[in-house]
């Protein structure tokens, strides 16, 4: 575990600087994904996923399952396609004109990209917390109530109040904002905004929650709270989390997938990945010894 | 030597000075001992610029001064000449001199001998003045050139001087624009004050009747002037309101379509086309309103049993609304596009539909900018004249019926001031008072718009 602590931002920056070298070694060594892409009780299954941004082949032939009621962590160097892959799972990439997605995406046996699938309802089932906090320019209360209102999830004001409070509590924000629920969401600090976005997402109780670096703007205390929340949420939900923090991945996830240059290099039980990585690239990345 | 030749010579000299000055500094740089480290030096061209300006500007300044005193000086000489020749010119000297100056050489023979003599004297003086002017200006330019070329050396703070001169030129341009604006406002203000000396402010602002025809003779009946501006402002409001009723929904909806739904290709084609609407001359809109829309409305009204005036507020308002669509759509499109993409994704990611995202997140976020666009469109509508002249008529009716003929402030200003008018009757002065009111109204609207837009900008920066 000590070695994991060394995977500092410095080491990551270094790995980016030497990206070319890595590429060469990747071409030499990558043949297929190492580990176990499938799992026993999958909530989401993806097969042979390719994503293009115009000419840029951002995801190349990735097959990966995400188990129900567990946390899957996606790790890998910056620009390797973690966000891109994550956004495919709730069809967020539909709104990017140049983005072309192919492959099989199955949620509970349903094809996510089927013609009959309504992306609006899909996104209500597969919620997302974005990399950058993006509260609406509305009050804190209205931010959280937004999803509840558009889906008509509450019968009356009192119920709405309860749900808002409950979601804010779960996101560890309620105590800080309970006196100013009518203040603008954008007036909060960056970390508070991120927790507001988490509250907003869990308020509508999606089945799957996709989190794109939810803790990157948080201090250690708020990060710990968020991790607690994730542990709690996984009892009822399925969670996919992108993170740059090895420690975080090790703490919160049951399975970890390592991406590199648009490819899924290795996937497996989190304990195994961090203690006994099979692939050379994975090992280099998690120990911070690139190049 | 003509004007063009003089300018040409001055420019050639300035250019020459530029090259010599530049060359001189260049040579001095070369002559300097090479220091070990690379020192950064002011480029020789800046010395050239400074030298060129020295040769040009004092000469131009003197030229301007000479131009100013030339005419009075010649007049003075002629007057002296007249006096010395004991020629009687009657009481109006300047008129007489003008007559002499306007004599054409080809008709000289037909003119009485005295005038011929004066004319000759005049041309003689004129040529003398011209020649000496040319000589003086060229001499100054030349002297300054030689002086500066001798003086300029490596230590001259050429770049600093050059920057100062550039700054001065820019300042002059800016102050001309500002002074003109201030001048216009002040002149309108002074004339208005004169008007309010004749017609009480209260009567002007709250009077319900507008008929600016003053009696020419005191005993004339039926044409005592009334300067109540309420009907005009009501007419302006009515037409602007109709115009906004057309422009706001159409402009807003097309902006939403362009920024949220349209493909990039469609957008790049459609947006400029929409903006062309603002570039069509208003007189074209005017006859479109008067010849197409107004008759159409009248026929439509008659077919359902309404009486519609042949010139109606509705026709003018509708067409004006079309004209100001781009003011609303362009600004609304800009602010909608400025709402960060992450905001859209946040909403879509919660399972909101696109229209929910637009009405619940984007429009509220962009609202200040949209309001700004609407206010800009409103001040444009209030100031518009041509369409109203052609389609809404001149009758100052006190009505809010869109089917009746009404008139607006701007139209009345035009009618008050066109034709032969004395510029000190209450009637013409009223135009300035109206102008002042209009100016204040649009100023306030613009200030609100700017304030709202600025406040909006701070939000996402
Ligand atoms: N909207 C887009 N348009 C075009 N290319 C994109 C877009 N988004 C991502 N890409 C490209 O796809 C590749 C993967 O990007 P992605 O955002 O998925 O990386 P990431 O792994 O999430 O990186 P980070 O850790 O920095 O967030 C990059 O090469 C990027 O340039
Ligand atoms: Mg990312």
Please give a structural write-up:
The complex is a heterodimer of chains A (291) and B (461). With 291 residues, chain A is of the alpha/beta class. Chain A has a domain at 37-136 and 205-286: Rossmann fold (3-Layer(aba) Sandwich). Helix content of chain A is 40%, strand content 24%. Chain A has 13 helices and eleven strands. In chain A, helix 10 links the parallel strand 8 (208-212) and strand 9 (238-242). Chain A is globular, with a radius of gyration of 19 Å. Chain B folds into two domains: 3-31 and 41-156, no CATH class; 226-456, MetI-like fold (Orthogonal Bundle), CATH 1.10.3720. Chain B has a two-stranded antiparallel ribbon. In chain B, helix 7 (230-261) packs antiparallel against helix 12, helix 9 packs across helix 10 and helix 12 (354-383) packs antiparallel against helix 15 (426-460). The relative contact order of chain B is 0.09. The mean pLDDT of chain B is 85. At the A-B interface, helix 5, helix 6 and helix 9 of A face helix 11 and helix 12 of B. The complex binds adenosine-5'-triphosphate and magnesium ion. Magnesium ion binds next to helix 4 of chain A.
> What is the helix fraction of residues of chain A, given as a range?
25-40%
Major beta sheet summary of chain A: 7 strands, mixed
Largest interface: A-B, 28 and 21 residues
CATH superfamily descriptor of the domain at 37-136 and 205-286 in chain A: P-loop containing nucleotide triphosphate hydrolases
The secondary structure category of chain A is: alpha/beta
Report the biggest beta sheet of chain B as strand number plus sense, adding barrel if it closes: 2 strands, antiparallel
Beta fraction of the residues of chain B? under 5%
Poorly predicted regions of chain A? 1-24
Strand order of the largest sheet of chain B: 1-2
From the structure provided, what is the oligomeric state, counting identical versus distinct chains? heterodimer
Strand neighbour order, sheet with most strands of chain A: 1-11-10-4-9-8-7
Tell the overall outline of chain B: flat
- N-end to C-end Cα span of chain B: 61 Å
**How many extended strands of chain A?**
11
Please identify the structural class of chain B as seen in this structure: mainly alpha
Question: Which architecture of the domain at 37-136 and 205-286 in chain A does the CATH hierarchy give at level 2?
Answer: 3-Layer(aba) Sandwich
**Would you state the CATH class of the domain at 37-136 and 205-286 in chain A?**
Alpha Beta
What does the radius of gyration of chain A come to?
19 Å
| Morphology of chain A | globular
């Amino acid at each position: 575990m000590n070695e994991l602590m060394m995977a500092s931002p410095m080491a990551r920056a270094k790995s980016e600087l030497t990206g070319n070298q890595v590429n060469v070694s990747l071409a030499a060594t990558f043949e297929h994904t190492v580990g176990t892409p499938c799992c026993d009780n999958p909530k989401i299954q993806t097969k042979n996923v390719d994503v293009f941004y115009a000419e840029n082949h951002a995801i190349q032939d990735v097959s990966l399952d995400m188990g129900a009621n567990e946390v899957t962590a996606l790790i890998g160097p910056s620009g390797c396609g973690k966000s891109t892959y994550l956004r495919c799972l709730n069809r967020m990439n539909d709104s990017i004109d140049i983005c072309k997605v192919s492959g099989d995406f199955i949620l509970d046996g349903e094809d996510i990209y089927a013609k009959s699938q309504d992306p609006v309802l899909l996104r209500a089932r597969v919620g997302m917390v974005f990399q950058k906090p993006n509260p609406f320019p509305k009050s804190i209360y209205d931010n959280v109530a937004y999803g509840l209102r558009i889906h008509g999830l509450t019968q009356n004001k009192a119920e709405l109040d309860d749900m808002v409070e409950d979601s804010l509590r779960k996101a560890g924000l309620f105590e800080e904002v309970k006196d100013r629920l009518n203040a603008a969401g954008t007036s909060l600090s960056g970390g508070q905004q991120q927790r507001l976005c988490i509250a907003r997402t869990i308020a509508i109780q999606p089945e799957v929650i996709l989190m794109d670096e939810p803790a990157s703007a948080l201090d250690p205390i708020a990060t710990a709270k968020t991790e607690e929340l994730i542990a709690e949420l996984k009892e009822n939900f399925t969670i996919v989390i992108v993170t740059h923090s090895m420690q975080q991945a090790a703490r919160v996830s049951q399975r970890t997938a390592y991406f590199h240059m648009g490819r899924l290099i290795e996937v497996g039980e989190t304990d195994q990945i961090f203690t006994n990585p099979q692939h050379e690239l994975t090992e280099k990345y998690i120990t911070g010894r690139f190049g | 030597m003509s004007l063009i030749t003089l300018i040409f010579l001055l420019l050639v000299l300035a250019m020459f000075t530029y090259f010599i000055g530049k060359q001189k500094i260049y040579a001095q740089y070369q002559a300097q001992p090479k220091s070990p480290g690379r020192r950064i030096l002011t480029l020789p061209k800046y010395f050239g610029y400074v030298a060129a300006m020295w040769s040009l500007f004092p000469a131009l300044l003197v030229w301007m001064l000479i131009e100013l005193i030339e005419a009075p000086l010649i007049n003075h000489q002629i007057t002296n000449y007249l006096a010395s020749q004991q020629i009687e010119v009657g009481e109006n000297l300047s008129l007489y001199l003008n007559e002499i100056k306007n004599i054409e050489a080809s008709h000289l023979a037909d003119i009485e001998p005295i005038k011929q003599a004066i004319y000759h004297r005049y041309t003689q003086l004129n040529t003398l003045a011209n020649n000496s002017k040319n000589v003086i200006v060229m001499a100054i330019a030349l002297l300054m050139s030689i002086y500066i070329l001798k003086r300029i050396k490596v230590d001259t703070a050429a770049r600093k001087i050059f920057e100062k001169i550039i700054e001065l030129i820019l300042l002059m341009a800016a102050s001309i624009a500002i002074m003109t604006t201030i001048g216009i406002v002040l002149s309108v203000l002074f004339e208005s004050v004169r008007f309010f000396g004749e017609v009480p402010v209260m009567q002007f602002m709250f009077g319900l009747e507008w008929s600016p025809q003053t009696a020419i003779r005191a005993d004339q009946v039926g044409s005592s002037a009334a300067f109540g501006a309420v009907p005009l402002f009501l007419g302006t409001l009515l037409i602007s309101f109709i115009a906004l009723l057309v422009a706001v929904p159409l402009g807003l909806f097309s902006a939403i379509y362009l920024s949220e739904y349209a493909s990039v290709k469609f957008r790049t084609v459609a947006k400029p086309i929409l903006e062309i609407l603002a570039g069509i001359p208003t007189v074209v809109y005017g006859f479109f309103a008067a010849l197409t829309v107004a008759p159409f409305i009248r026929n439509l009204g008659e077919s359902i049993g309404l009486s519609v005036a042949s010139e109606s507020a509705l026709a003018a308002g509708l067409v004006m609304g079309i004209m100001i669509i781009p003011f609303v759509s362009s600004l609304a499109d800009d602010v909608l596009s400025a709402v960060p993409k992450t905001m859209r994704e946040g909403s879509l990611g919660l399972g909101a539909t696109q229209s929910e995202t637009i009405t619940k997140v984007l429009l509220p976020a962009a609202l200040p900018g949209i309001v700004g666009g609407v206010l800009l469109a409103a001040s444009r509508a209030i100031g518009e004249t041509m369409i109203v002249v052609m389609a809404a008529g001149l009758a100052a009716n006190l009505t809010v019926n869109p089917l009746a003929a009404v008139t607006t402030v701007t139209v009345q200003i035009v009618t008050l001031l066109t034709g032969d008018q004395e510029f000190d009757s209450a009637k013409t002065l009223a135009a300035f008072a109206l102008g002042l009111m209009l100016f204040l109204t649009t100023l306030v609207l613009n200030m609100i718009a700017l304030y709202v837009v600025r406040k909006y900008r701070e939000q996402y920066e």
